[in-house]
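Can't paste images in this forum, so I'm doing it all in text. The chain is below; anyone willing to post the predicted structure tokens underneath?
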Amino acid sequence: MDYEERLRTLAINDERFGPDAGARQVHPEVLDAKTLALVRLGALIAVGGAEPSYGALGDDALNAGASPAEMVDVLIGVLPVVGLPRGVAAAARLSLALGFDVEAAADDTH
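Text version of the structure:
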């Protein structure tokens, strides 16, 4: 299915794109696993996802070959879109997902 057909079917709310589609669900055709994991991390930041989701998507990104630095770059890259308050919240959640407690590190510098 070419990109135009994929856009058309998504625009008409095709059931293949829904969360209940299971194995029939349409997946990205061109993105590699690492890029897809980083895109999903960016989307999680944008929607203000919960802390456990950062752990799961962070693990997905690391397992797909993304580095922690690339994950932080995604956060910094979406700041102009999501705004600083959401970015600050995401930074704390992402740091915990990466095993780094930003708040404890901040306390140590004072």
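The radius of gyration is 16 Å. The longest helix spans residues 33-47.
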